[in-house]
Amino acid sequence: MKDNELFWIFSGLFGFLAVATVIGLILKQVKGNTSVISNLNARIRAWWLMCIIAAVAISIGPIGSVVLFAFMSLLALRELITLTPTHRADHGALFWCFFIILPVQYVLVGVQWYNLLAVFIPVYAFLFIPTRMVLSGDTRHFLERMAKIQWSVMIAVYCLSYAPALLVLPIPDFTDNINLLLFLMIVVQISDVLQYVFGKLFGKRPIVPKLSPNKTVEGFIGGILSASCVGMALWWATPFSPWAAFLLSLLICLAGFAGGLCMSAIKRDSGIKDFGAMIEGHGGMMDRLDSLCFAAPVFFHVLKYFYT
């Protein structure tokens, strides 16, 4: 049953990408290679690559998913840390963040040690980071430097690690936890895509004009409701009823939207458009994961409290 569900999920996903590719090529021929159409086609090509990588990682098994997310966390953490210059005195703490704290968090996910993975970063790492920093003796802008590093680790490592942590949830009479991870990723990412599409087609009123003028009320409502309907249509691959799937999808779409806004505020404050340029049409790794970082822990804990 599991293989059949994965087959249909990926068939639908790649079928959607195939349709989007054809539409992009038609638009290019009819409208010309404008900046909007060029960006759309670049995003579609990037989605092909990301979906193929995800499919390969999932086919390897749970360890493949954990390793994939650990690597994405590493890239996202690097982007957040490099937003502003760090002091030489911070390098010791950063070494621990990249090469000790991040790997340990994902090892805890891999060995399914939930009780420790839930508190390792927000308790132990949160207290260790400023302690390691203060030992350097550099107190210039100490609170600002400490908060930046702690926030980066919390978002890029801790929050994101809750996505593969879905694989350890003991839900009664349900063993295909990989479907929960796919459900989360598909709903959150397609919400971003549909908000962009609805915003381009019908957007008139910016939802937060001073922060992100491209995000509109029309794009927000249309994208989130349609993505929630996509989640509802995937109920058969989950332990949820159709309406529960819709409500959970709505919840994680709203959390993902909040994540996108918060990351946009950081970029606006730093005077940059994207966190990086490694993903064609999307920007950096953090630009692609901003919604997932907020949605993953919310989704995980709602399932833990109501389904386990």
From TrEMBL:
It comes from the Bacteria. GO terms for cellular component: plasma membrane. GO terms for molecular function: nucleotidyltransferase activity. The keyword Amino-acid biosynthesis does not apply. The chain crosses the membrane at residues 7-27, 47-77, 89-107, 113-130, 151-172, 178-198, 219-237, 243-266. The keyword Oxidoreductase does not apply. Keywords: Membrane, Nucleotidyltransferase, Transferase, Transmembrane, Transmembrane helix. This is Phosphatidate cytidylyltransferase. It comes from Morganella morganii (Proteus morganii).
